[in-house]
Amino acid sequence: MTNPYPHLFSPLKLGAIQLPNRIIMAPLTRARSEEDHIPTDLMVEYYAQHASGGLIIAEATMAMEGCSAFWKEPGIYSNEQIAGWKKITDAVHAKGGRIVLQIWHGGRACHPVLNNGQVPVSASAIAIDDKVHTPEGELPYTVPHALTIEEIPAIIEGFRQAAINAKTAGFDGIEVHGANGYLLDQFLRDGSNKRTDNYGGSIENRARLLLKVLAAVSEVWGSNRVGLRLSPLNSFNSMLDSDPVALTKWLSEKLNEFNLAYLHIMRSDFFGIQKEDVLSVAEQFYQGNIIGNMGYDAAEAEAAIAKGDLEAVAFGVSYLANPDLPERLKAGAELNQPNPDTFYTAGPEGYTDYPFMQN
Asked: How far apart are CA 168 and CA 83, in angstroms?
């Protein structure tokens, strides 16, 4: 049978990372780690199952202690966590796959109950208008502490150390999480950043923390093994920006200085509140590799790559439910349907038990 998606299945070099195809597994929080944020053997099985894509971007992972926003998300700050991730990277590499780690700080999305009573931090003292799942049930988000100028270097150092630890754990690179209303995004967008110092106000000031983090982790890895995820439109976690198009344009031009492996753009808003076209802005002004994300099917991904708008596409829930997604797409096979009820639950159900295609 003829491959219906020849561009999607063509090889690609993302910086220093060589990919056999352009089907990317998007970073997907699954909350399957141990309570001390150590990756489990179940996670080893899960990631190994998905190794046939061009690249796995592992889930949001705590860059440093005290920034838990999901209760059972993994970390990369302890020796035990590094060892747990090493099992995962070894298993993925044994299957011929490639995997990068998304390093992340939850910022105001963290909660004291998840962090031994520690007050969350953010750009400004503005709480998320929502609730978070904790061992004590659903609780409202708390007002964060606005990071002082003196406290910011420790955040940058935390990301730098996470990059070092990811290298020790055997990853092929890292993705800096600058999206979805977490700490770096909280500085980037003016709905959550009301600062009047040199980390607030202008886009240049609001981007300062992100750019310093990128510079720090690039010293560890080389920028050609560093990716960045952005979501200029996504209103998740009470996020908003007054001019997401201007923000995207400025960042796209500035990021050309870094020679990153890729820029990973979430093109839309989970809730449809902001509807601007930021992806075409990134395509126009960013000169490196762009990975598109949010709502693509194989046909649209193929068309975007064929046209030269994108270099690759990150698939989320479809890849979650189809560990052999590349094989299914190439064969034109029916896809498993994802079960949202098991996205964040414990155990293998809805995690490692989705069936593979029958030959």
From this structure: 9
Note if 77 is an active site residue: no
* Count of beta carbons in the 10 Å neighbourhood of residue 344: 17
Task: Tell the burial category of 129 from Cβ atoms under 10 Å away from its Cβ (0-12, 13-18, 19+).
Answer: exposed
The model scores a pTM over 0.90: yes
Q: Do 129 and 70 contact (CB within 8 A), yes or no?
A: no
Residue 2: pLDDT band (50, 70, 90) is: confident
Sign of CA dihedral 231, 235, 241, 245: positive
DSSP state of 66: T
Residues in the chain: 359
Q: How many CB atoms lie within 10 A of CB 340?
A: 10
Helix (H) or strand (E) holding 251: helix 244-255
Please write the tens of the pLDDT for every residue from 76-133.
999 999 999 999 999 999 999 999 999 999 999 999 999 999 999 999 999 999 999 9
Adjacent-strand bridge partners of 291: 264, 312
CA-CA distance, 133 to 113, in Å (whole number)?
A: 10
The token duo for 69 is 């926003």
Distance CA 187, CA 195 (A): 9
Q: Which member of 5, 46, 141, 182 is catalytic?
A: 182
Tens-place pLDDT, residues 173-194: 999 999 999 999 999 999 999 9
Tell me the longest C-alpha to C-alpha distance in the chain. 61
